[in-house]
User: What shape does this take?
Amino acid sequence: MNSPFHRSTTPSTMNRRDFLWQSGGGLGGIALAALMGTEQARAGELPSILSGKLHHPPRAKRVVQLFMAGAASHLDLFDFKPELVKRHGQPSDFGEAVEAFQNGLGPWKKPVWDFQSHGQSGKMLGEVVADLGSVVDEIAWIHNLVGKTGVHSQGTLLQSTGFNRPGFPSAGSWVSYGLGSMNDNLPAYVVLPDHRGLASNGTKNWDAAFLPAQHQGTVIYPGSETPIVDLFPDAKRGDFITSASEREGGALLARLNATHAATRLGDERLDARIRSYELAAKMQLAAPEALDISKESAATKAMYGIRDDVKDWPKTINAEEEMDIFGRKCLAARRLLERGVRFVQIWSGNDNGFPRRNWDSHEDVERDHGPLARGFARGASALIRDLKQRGLLEDTIILWTTEFGRMPSSQGGGKGRDHNPYVFTNWLCGGGIKGGTTAGESDQWGYKPLDRSNPTTCYDIHATILHQLGIDHTKLTYRSNGIDRRLTDVHGHVIKELIA
Amino acid sequence: MVRFTPLILLAVCPSLLAASVDFNRDVKPIFEAHCAGCHGAEKHKSDYRLDSREVALAGGESGNAAIVPGKPEAGSLIHFVDGSDKELFMPPRKSDAKPLNAAQVETLKMWIAEGANWSESSVKITANAADVTEHWSFQPLKRPSVPGSEANAIDAFIHAKLRERGLSSSPEAERRTLIRRVSFDLIGLPPTAEEVDAFCADKDPKAYEKLVDHLLASPRYGERWARHWLDVVHYGETHGYDKDKQRNNAWPYRDYVIRAFNEDKPYARFVQEQIAGDVLFPDTVDGITALGFIAAGPWDFIGHSEVPETKTDGKIARHLDRDDMVSNTINTFQSVTVHCAQCHDHKFDPIKQEDYYALQADFAALDRADKAYFADAALTKRYAMIQFEKRQLDARIKTLDEEATKAAGDKLVKLDQRIDTATKSLKGNGSPAFGYHSAISPIQDAVKWVQVDLGKSMDIDKIVLLPAYDDFGGIGAGFGFPLRFKVEVSDDPEFRQGAALVWKRHDQTFMRDFTNPGIVPFTTGGAKGDFHARYVRVTATKLAPRKNDFILALAELQVLDEAGKNLALDKEVTAQDSIEAGPRWAKANLVDGHAPVQPDAGAGDIASLRAQRAKLLLESLAEPKRKQRTDATEELKRVTAELGKFPKPQMVYAGIVHYGTGAFSGTGPNGGKPRTITVLGRGDVKRPGKEVLPGSLSFLSPLPSRFDLKPDADEGERRAALARWLSDERNPLTWRSIVNRMWQYHFGRGIVETPNDFGKMGSLPTHPELLDWLAVWFRDDAKGSLKVLHKLIVTSEAYRQTSVPDSALMKGASEIDGSNTLLWRQNRRRLEAEAIRDSILLAAGKLDLTMGGPSFQDFVITHPEHSPHYEYQLSDPEDAKIQRRSIYRFIVRSQQQPWLATMDCADPSMLVERRNQTITPLQALAQMNNQLALAMAKHFAERVTNPTSDPAAQISAAFRIALQRTPSDAERDDLVHYAKQHGLANACRLVLNLNEFVFID
Assistant: This one.
């Protein structure tokens, strides 16, 4: 049968084509293909995107995703609601029955921080994120995002993978798969988690799932003793290893493997594995260099809120330390992007626990959002400015997101807010995004979209980002368990108003 | 295929055309089979669609009417399909759809002539083409004739295909390659060098067969093949999603799978046990532990435990939960992608949306939870019966008491008030001086201490901590009692020297917190005068949570001598800090002799009030209910006593009827009655449609699509029916599916390359006759024995042939069949992550072959109280507990083991039909630098150093252990030279990183 449905695109036993496909895209894939002079072998049946031909001319090459774990409040940061100020303390009336995650919606609650207008666009920002004021005209706002449920795990997966259950590749993995790396020596997709721990779903939020493993986000902890797991042998366990033993061992391993491969012609995997050790050695040089910020100027560090002068931070959470932490990640991100990394995902906040070290402010928005918000706002604004002054902002998209928003009423009359999956905010900038615009408003309370029949979904955001990268989101597919899977499932529209 | 009968009749019997045409029966199938791919509900090419009468009549973008009711020749539709329109022919000749035959054209004409009547103005017409049931995999199994006289039928089929293409097999692999290949395949471990030598020297013509029998009889076989199975069923030992809590009782299912393979359980039984073992084989342990299959996948803890089924989010969580059960079942046993039919009829396969929900109905009573069982099945049965009895009794008592409560009226209300007052008076503090309370800390891990000075050194027998009571924050009993603490004595008030640890339950490496004791005193063990000291100090290393902060508080600290005298009474207390909020909280209150009232004090009053209450209730009931209530009490006593006599049951995490409380109550409280399942519009829980009864796929005639069950049938009967349906010998998918999976693990690729998708979107079989022959032979001749199937496969020439034929054959065959789909040679394969890890441990001489039981954890859990952090980097590679086979590794969903994940191990959140095989620099880094790999390289070096000090002999030994061959002179000289420069451990590390170590020829 020559039906198009019978074309098998499942990764298969290693024939040449499949192998190259699987190697393609991610770390080392391009180099492997080039090494073997087989670029042309990757064309043919494969999606054209994998052979380097994009669906349309791209406006962006790189992506930064800032993820606020725990559900950051749109109402206290970005989505100003005068009505809430006016009605603060009055019994809340949503005009319909509301199913809250934890029951007990209290009175209307005004934003915890005062709002002021910023930039030419006059965008109102909460005082706690006022640092973003300096770049506010670069940013496009989407205030009518909707989720599917108010459950953290599902909401987080939905934003990171487009599905509210585990088992699907993250947006970064799709981008890595679609575009590959611009550098042999570093992974295409890097994740900088919160130093305190992983958000809901752990590593599933940067999983490659059914895509080949090299498209999984590589976790990096900049500034830590082992920023990348197994990049170097552990000093204690590997006390028998020296730089000379490494150097000569690498050469000997390659020689022994070459002898083995010589009697087994026609199996590219054997050569590829030899080459993978060479690339690993290159990465051992490149990664520390990329993460070394010691040569960055004092002014740059100050812009990012990095404080080399402070050695002992207070034991309690505080804004200065959060700025230092988030700023270091943003600076590392800039350095990685400059060196060809495609997609960087930066996390603020870890899992749900007490005391709150994420954005899940059921009890006290001011206490728990405050330090995290000041921290990310400083780092993010510095990153935007820094990319701009280096000419990188024009082809780097930055996405700010979170799993859902928070309610316009207080939780049980207290200082916190419950989950609001019915509306929340995303923002985008750079990479051909039209700054200073707003696409999609929430209603007077910030409870649901103003136009309930036309909300924005994560599919639309993902479709738009892929579009800017030169990819038609309906055509970037991978066959898994009988379905040609997409990042955008069967949904998604490019948000035209956002494009410059 | 009853539904096609009318058309067939029409074709052969034109006279019947006189009968009127029925749209649904006669016309719709034509549209669906030939037109709807482009003009149905999904696609409307040229703006034309046949699912709307209006558009179907009016025509598409051309603007010409397509159908004119009553006038077949007037509209364009007939001209497009009968070839009379010279420019446009439908369906297009290059499309998949076949042209209409003459009878079908006549049917359409007749229908239009009769007025083009539709059942409704809009009907659902999708490309669910009528002939998809003719797809190869849905056809009944028939045994094809074997196309040759080869000793092994497999070879006859393989050779026949090769001959068609002018190809032939490769010669048999040499013996070292063969034993390595078949050992890794069957037991997941390499042979020893000695086994290789023996096999190479064995002149017996049955040497290979003996080897295969030996390997299949090894317990290692079950461990190897269980891992493949656990990939398919996405087995994991944490829930996944938010918090990712552990499932400490999942492993009995893993052990069941290992046992099933080792005992060579017939496949039909293997299928049945995993779906309904408790119903079909009620007297067996396997019948219970096998139910771990249903619960193998991820589970949304928060979506169940915090959100009840009455809320939308709770409904979604449970819908996703059943979806996982259905997908796991149908993907695993049927190799079709049923989950695609959740929102609409399957686009490519004949799976109706209703079928999908019928399958959900099969599991509608279930949740995932621990199920109790005993090694003795009779005991399990009795335990379940008594538990059942107890639940029945509880329910009966509840009903009777509700009735009695109504009848008792005011009297009861008053009595309850008295009980309430009495209980309250018991709670809390007998004195306004509560005890000692530290300063408030914003962090939990702050260290705080409080100590008493006995005045002089004294003999101490034991130390008692009496917990405090305070209603602040709704905490009450045990207020401020530390989660981790130690008790020390010393003669040094600073505790800098001579401090003796009296009790330390929770040091920093011990992961469990002390549970709040309420107001039950905590006593250190008797020290029998061993302790002689002046100062006694309690140090909290993990404070008790208050509202959003942390404290240490105690009502009383008693230091007892052997006579039981409290030496600490009214002595001086010092502390690191204290809130000193008198009169309640003060340092001195720690030794003032006042502590919250003991639970038994004053209990007499309450007990008598409660007795009065019971009496009142009883008297409020009229006979015979009064007697029933008395009997029930007696019964309950007996039943409770009986339950108490049982030994502690074992637990397996399984798909069961759950008897819970709160948001996660399960169906148990409703007597295990299955939840009502309806079709959900677009899979949306807010759009329930018609109710669906239990059943399965509807296109595998003669298997029933809905189960013939009484409306009040027990939920277990639904699963039993499904289990029978799946294992029915007439079910063609079941048998094709399993032989294809087995084939894949032996050749690296299935006869069907998509083992979880035998539908239209899946691959076609490369050797359809072989697949069917194997399926029938496995079912009928081998009686479902997997070991017999293995033996047939691995003794075939196809399996035994070399992967490295000579270059002439290689070149010629590569041009014709470069990807070796016809198997003109064996495929070289990279070892799976687990096989690499196990081989490294084996080479180092460290592999512990202990079987079964709880999984080893190659990580350290931090922050267990909220979301456990699984810290693999903190695992000690020298810890003997983790040096077991990888099948016994504790499998975390949210954080996969980084090394094995890099090596493409199965992701337990996905149904892994087949592993990816990637080659990346991160793998190279992991295999070179992973802590376990480094530690094992050292042990490997020690192992080859011990017997000999000759470097050349050491290198040879390393090769024989790791690769089961002696090195060439060049290899040996190179490595000896390298070892002299950099040490043998470095040389051994290289050997473990060789391509030859991870690839099997």
User: Anything to note?
Assistant: The longest strand of chain B covers residues 448-460. The longest helix of chain B spans residues 377-408. The CA atoms of residues 10 and 16 of chain B lie 6 Å apart.
